[in-house]
Write a structure and sequence with these properties.
Length: about 110
């Protein structure tokens, strides 16, 4: 198993810490777009150009960076709603909100 570069882990941690600071009733896709945008910004601070692509995590960060550079937040939004793993996580958040009887996000 290849160890992840601490800079890649910092990007993931920044993504998750972003979620900790977001209001629970925020639109789930918007939550993910913001989290991914922050991880891309953190990842980008470590490299003059795009970072390495040695591991699956680094490849994912490089891919998301390219999407963000070329298409902005709209590209991240499209990525999140089209990726089965990401969109299933968003659906799970919506189910949690319903179970807690909280207002559902408006973009669905």
């Amino acid at each position: 198993m290849v160890k992840e570069d601490p800079r890649a882990l910092a990007a993931v941690l920044a993504h998750e810490l972003t979620h900790a600071a977001q209001p629970f009733d925020m639109d789930c896709v918007d939550r993910e777009v913001e989290g991914h945008r922050i991880s891309i910004l953190v990842w980008g601070t470590f490299w003059k150009r795009r970072g390495p692509v040695r591991t699956a995590l680094e490849q994912e960060l490089a891919y998301e960076t390219r999407i963000f550079e070329e298409e902005g937040e709209d590209g991240l939004y499209d990525l999140i709603v089209s990726e089965p793993a990401l969109s299933s996580g968003v659906r799970a958040l919506n189910r949690s909100a319903r179970a807690a009887r909280l207002p559902l996000p408006g973009r669905y």
